[in-house]
Every structure is written in structure tokens, then in C-alpha cells.
Design goal:
The complex is a heterodimer. By secondary structure, chain A is mainly α. Chain A is about 80% helix and about 0% strand. Chain A is globular, with a radius of gyration of 23 Å. Chain B folds into two domains: about 180 residues, 3-Layer(aba) Sandwich (D-Maltodextrin-Binding Protein, domain 2), CATH 3.40.190; about 150 residues, Periplasmic binding protein-like II (D-Maltodextrin-Binding Protein, domain 2, 3-Layer(aba) Sandwich), CATH 3.40.190.10. Classes of the chains: A mainly alpha, B alpha/beta. The interface between A and B is large, with 56 and 63 residues.
Amino acid sequence: MTVPRLGLILAALITAAIVADYAALLWGATATDLQDLAGDTYLRRVVGFTFLQATLSALLALAAAIPAARALARQSAFPGRSLILQFCALPLVMPSVAAIFGIVAIYGRSGYLAQLTEWKPSIYGLTGILIAHVFFNLPLAIRLLLPAWSTVPAETWRLTAQLGMSSRQVFRLIELPLLRQYVPAALAFIFILCFLSFAVVLTLGGGPRATTLEVAIYQALRADVDLPRGGALALLQTVACLVMVAIAWAMGRRLDFGRSTRLVGLRFDGMTAGARFRDFAVIALAMGFVALPVAALVFDGLRGLLFAQQNLSSLLSATLVTLALGLPAGLIATALGYPIAVASDRLRASPPAVILIGIAGLAGVIASPMAIGAGFTLTLTGRVDLYAIAPAGVIAMNALLMLPFAVGVLRPAVARNHAQVDRLCAGLGIDGWNRFRVVDWPMLRKPIGLALGLTTAAAMGDLAAIALFGNQNLTNLTLLLYNQISAYRMESASGTALVLLALCLASFAVIERGVGGRAVS
Amino acid sequence: MRFSSRLVLSALTAFVGIASAQADTPKLTVYTYSSFVAEWGPGPKITPIFEQQCGCKIEWVGVGDGAGLLAKLKLEGEKSPADIVLGIDTSLTAEAAATGLIAPHGIDTSAVKLPVAWDDKNFVPYDYGYFAFMWDTQQLKDPPKSLADLAKDGAEPKILLEDPRTSTPGLGLLLWLKSVYGDKAAEAWKGMAPKILTVSKSWDEAYGLFTKGEAPLVLSYTTSEAYHVMAEKTDRYKALVFPEGNYMQIEVAGMLKSSKHPELAKQFLQFLVSKDFQTVIPTTNWMLPVTDGATPPEFATAAPQPQKALLLPADEVAKHRAAWIKEWLEAVGQ
């Protein structure tokens, strides 16, 4: 079986699972149910607000990420750069409650900023939502955009220097077209993540005005157990996300730079003192914004680890559970993501395949976790002993939820690899495993390492899956943290949050370096 | 090397031993909220006591919160592997009973001494508490004296609330205002609205923001004060009791009709109102015991006794909940 075909089959299976899941919920829904939904003014307001906050959040995150990524791309070698890039994976793993506390510790009414400046910021409302969403997504956006620059061959950069192009001209003639290829996908992805945001929006949003569609789904599925309504709302949410993806798709442009001699590309326009100063200022600003709340968490966490009564054995076992569930989930997500990414590139001439693969690649983020959970419970009860399969269930669900991250990272890399070496390989008759080993792997190990690192880190922060399979012997760090807060143990919880962050950073660094190796291209 | 292989061998033997022991002893599956079975919760303390009494094994399944518990039960229906569901509160009992999945418990509840009469045939109460605003004495000099103080106009002092759509305390406050103000509840909410700093998804977030000093008042329980006094040895945080009364929350357990071990399930429900269980509750779940003689002496001062216990009938709550939430949304959300 060829890799694209495998990817197509996987995509079909994943899409079928999601459709079956929704069908189980919507089973028995009547036309009047849907009419009620359409006439609901409250719901219309919720949808409107969800769109508004997600759009603003995504635009802001991207607006900040583009200069930051550009600065990081221009300054391709300075001490601490790789640490900064690894740091970018942190917000992904952060449980929403920890992120809320970190942000409030800096920007809140009695946060450090208020204490230092006498200025009492009011973050509860749209401001709080936007701060939190940029905090979560700016680092992700940087990681999604940065590979764009490495697709430019070294020869091009030399040419820009030979032609004496200014920084502005380089941006307009080279980087802008490049970004047009990458930004829409990143924008759509982050829009979706913000669209689904739940706890952050409620808590920092200041009240029920800030209600997202996911809250309405929660209400329908958890409080009222009105499955048709919950299913219909989830479907509405999925469709809204897909529309966004379609718009992004239509805006995107493909760009082929052709073959490169794989020399390290030095940016000559970034070498002047002024440019260096500007770049480092931008990097410091962007990283400072993300690092401050994290620093507050680290500070609280150290205090929690040192002074609060900490049950080390439960902390250790939660750490092991986090690793044991996170690593396989990341591995599976990446292993599924690769053939899907290949299929999405090779089969792009066939619209049905494009749609199917597009849906499967995004399934984990466009489908409401709450709806997936309810559908699973409904279908599996009585057929499978959920208690017995809990670890496998958590891993499988997380792999599905993290798949979009893997596909998002791998797709552009695979496309570039395809454009650069496909014809050459065909001419030389290299294919199958040999081609992967000799040609693809050296070119793709860096994005594969990044995908594996990102998905593993993100899976480590899981709460949705572990809560669904609820098993007393299966407590990961996120669940431990929530349990500690429910038992008033705020200080122990800060310690747990710190362990989770450290574990995430370490795993991400080891995986990205270990699998990705040193920079090629 | 030899040491480690011996270790593996003994571990294997132990595992096989446990596995075969499991095959012989009956297993009681209990659905509950996850903090009940967390390491500081009541779960780990009471499990060995009951397992010894019954010669059985308890399999705890921790599912999110109380609302999640009922939702899971409804989704699973008669195929549910659960024998017992523990952790539903009085605002959900009518709905839980309406599913037809709960069997009458038929046990002796004469030991139960609640401030209100208990005659529910389906559910056994195992603890209760009063919702109360917690007051940070370092942030605010004059605390509100009554619910009316909070419901009158004005933007100070700031309060942290939970959302009634996603949280039990949030729903508790909704019912609290309803039982005090009745048809005028919406006006009371409008008066309170400017004071609300934020409405969070769950108690965790609200209480965390409170201890971080974001607002001087948060909706919690009277027993929160007892936690700070007993576990943290601080009297900085005080629970406020109001002349209008404080709303009650009674947590209950019930057995499922589909249970494969009805006798064991009954035995477990009876155990819930026994001294062994009740004395564990106050300092693990930080709620009040439902029987006499189980309250620790510190609670006398650190968990203030409300002047009046408020509780709406379960069926009335079930009937009006959706409408009341809508009313709340309109009053606070505009």
C-alpha cells in the first residue's frame, strides 16, 4: 500500500468515527429541534460572541507572531534561541486553571503589575479573554510560522544581498508571499482553538455575557442531557470551524522555491546593528509577554514544592502516568499524521479527497470534546468495559485530539519535500522504504521531531480524556492539580503545575533534539 | 541481576495473587466526583474500612463533578456498570429519580439528623453544607451584613461567583436568591450584577482567584472557614452567615436498579450513615456530617451555624431550573 493511500484510508476511518459519534447524539432529533435552535436569540448572541472573540484572538496572536517569528528567523544563531523555541511549547500543556492563575498573578487586580504601577487594570471582560488567548497561541503561532523561512533557499537570500534589497523590500518581495502561504492555515487553526475555548472565556470574560458555544454544548450535554440539542450545537460548532478553514484554504497560496543546495541561509539584511536591535527587542517583547505569567507560576510552584505538604509518591506516580499516557499519544498522533499529511499533498487534485483529509486532519480540534465524550459513552457502554480499557482509551482519544497539531506541522514540510525531490527520486527509481530512509527522513526528521514534541507535550496537559475514562488508578498531573485545588490545596497545586511545566519542557526539548537532530536545510 | 529478577518474580506472584483474589471477591462499582476519591478525599480512608466489613472490593470511578455524574448515568442508562452513584446533590435528585434508573434504598435512615426532614425513598444523604460568602478580612474592612447588602445597587465590594450552568455552588446561589426573593429574584440579581468581578466555570477557579486576592468575597461554603482554621491555621478567611438564611446543599447516594450486587449496594448505603463513615467526612470532604456525634469540636466556631436553613423542594427545582437560569442570564448577562 502506498503512503498516500494509507493516509486516505486513515482519514476516512477518523472521519467515520466522528460522524458516527455525532450521529449517535443526533439520533432521534426532529426537525422542530433544529428549528428551535435557529430561532433561539440567546444562541445567536452566543454564536456572535464566540465568533468575535475567536476572530480577535486569532488576529492578535498572528499580528504579534509575525514580527516575532520574522525576528527569530533573521537572527538564526544566538545563545538561548533553541531554548526560546522550546519554551514556545509550554502554553500548549498548561491546564486552563493554571494559565488563568498565572495571567491573573501578573495582570490581575492585585497582580504584580497593579502592585508596581498603581494602575489597576480591569482584565475581566474581552481584555482578559484576549490576553489569555494571545498568551496561549502566540507561541504556537511562532512555531507554526517559523518553518516558512527555512523553505527559502540560501541562494535567494544571497541574491537579495547582491541586489542590495532593503529589509522592507525583502519583506515585500520574499516574506510577504511566503507568509500568504502559511498565515491562513495558522490563522484558521488558532481561530478554532479560541472558538472552542471554555474555562478561560468564562472565568476571565467577567460573566455570562462571555459565553461560547462550547458552554451551550456543556449545558445541553451535561446539565440537561438533551442529546439532540447538544449534538446539533456541536454540529453547528464544527460547521462554523470548517467554514473558517475553507476561507483560509481559499486565501492560501502555494509557493514553490524549487531545489536548494541545502546551505544554511544567512540573512544579510538582519546583520546591521539597527536590525539586530529591533529583532531582539521584538523577541524580548513577545517572549516577555508569555514568560511573565509563566514566571509567576514558577515562583508560586517553587514555594509550593518547598513549603506545602507535598505527597511525593503521588506526585511521582502522576508524573509517570503523564509520561506513560503522553508519549504513546504523541507517537500515535505523529504516526497517523505523517501518512495523512502525505496524502493531503499528493491527492490535492481530487476535491473529495481534499475535503476528507482536511476534516480528518482537523477532527481533534473542530469536534467538541464534550460531544466526542458523550458520543463515546453512549456507543461504548455495555459493549466495552471502559474501566479495563481506560489507559488505551485515554491514549487513543488524546492521539485523535492532538492529530491536528501533527498534520499542521508536517503538511508544509511534506509538500516542500515533494516539490523538491519527487521527480529526482522517480528518475533515480528510489521509492518505498529506501526513499523514506535515505531521502525523506534526513529532510523531514526536523518537522517530525517538532510534531512529535508538540503532540506529546500537548497530550501531557490532557484533562478531557482522563476525565472521561475516570479511573481511580489513573491520575495524571493535570487531574492531580484539579483535585488539589478542589481540596483547597492551592499551594500543592502550584507545585504540581510546576512539575507539569518542567516535564513538558524537558520532554519537548529531548524529543525535538533527539528525533529532529541538528539543523539541516 | 539476580536481585532484579527475583524482584520481578515476586512482583508477578503478588500480581497473580491479587488477580485471583479479585476473581473470588465481589466488586462494587461506585461512580462519584473525582475529588471524593483523590488522596485527601474520603475515598482512600473509608475504602479499607468498608472492604473489610463486606469482604468485597470497591471500584471507584471518579467522573468530574456532580452534574457530570448524572449525565454519565443518563447516557449509560440500564447498561451502566455502576452499582452505586454517590455525589448527586438535592438540586439534581428529582431529575436523577426521574430517569427510573435508581432503586429505592430500603435502608434504615433513622440516624440521619438533618436540619430538614428527610423522606426521600431513593437517596441516602451522606453529608451536607451551607453555601456562604467567604470574606477575606485583609481585603475588606466592613463585610456585607446580609444578602440584601449584596443585592442592593453599587459596584463594591467585588464578588466572585460560579456559573449556575456549569457549577453546583453557582446553581446554589441561584436557588438561594430564589428562595429569599421569589419572583423578585431577577431584581436582586440586577442589583448584584455590578459587584460581580467574574463568574467562573467552577468553584476551583473562583476560589483560586479569591485566595490570590482578586476579590474580597467569593461564593463557597461555611465549612471553607473550618478548612483554613484547621488545616492552614489561619483566621484570615471568614464565612458570612446572613439573617435571610443560607441555602443548603445535601449530598446523596443511591443504588442502581441494574446493580448486580443489590445486597452489597444496600450494605454500602447503610455504611454511609454509620459512624465509621460520618467521622471521616468533615475533615476530608469539608462538609457537615448527617449524623450526631461526628462533628469535630473545631467546627463549632470555625463553621458558623446559619440562622436559617433554606432548601427548595427537589421537584420544584427540577421543574423550574431551566426557566430560572434563563432569568439569571437575562438579569446578569445584559
